[in-house]
Amino acid sequence: MSSLSLSARRENGTAVLSLDGELDLATVPALRDTALAELGEPGTATLVLDLARLTFLDSTGIGCWIELRNHAEGAGKELALRAVPAAARRTVTIAGLAPVFGIDAS
């Protein structure tokens, strides 16, 4: 069974959402709901997903990131990824989405 813990904090107009665990079909709804709520907060200009403790990423997780990015841009906000683990970086690079998320593929 997949497990994902989310914790949020604010840093001067930036909402930082830390992910701890696996991001997959079972856990994407929790990320989506929490991230959309953070993006909807007044004064939030940027949502940062801190991935330092992300242990697994599948295609539904990447799809969620795209959805959140599109939502943020539509609202005049920004989505950024921080501390992307090597395995997640590789998955995003193979999918051809590293430039979309500003991830260095090397």
From TrEMBL:
Q: Which CDD domains does its entry note?
A: STAS_anti-anti-sigma_factors (cd07043)
Q: Look up the coiled coil feature and give its residue ranges.
A: none
Q: InterPro entries from the entry? A: Anti-sigma_ant, MlaB-like_STAS, STAS_dom, STAS_dom_sf
The GO terms describing molecular function are: anti-sigma factor antagonist activity
Q: Which Pfam families match?
A: STAS_2
Domain STAS positions: 4-106
Family assignment? Belongs to the anti-sigma-factor antagonist family.
Q: Which PANTHER family match?
A: ANTI-SIGMA FACTOR ANTAGONIST TM_1081-RELATED, ANTI-SIGMA FACTOR ANTAGONIST TM_1081-RELATED-RELATED
> Can you say what this protein is called?
Anti-sigma factor antagonist
Instruction: Look up and give the organism this protein is from.
Output: Jatrophihabitans endophyticus
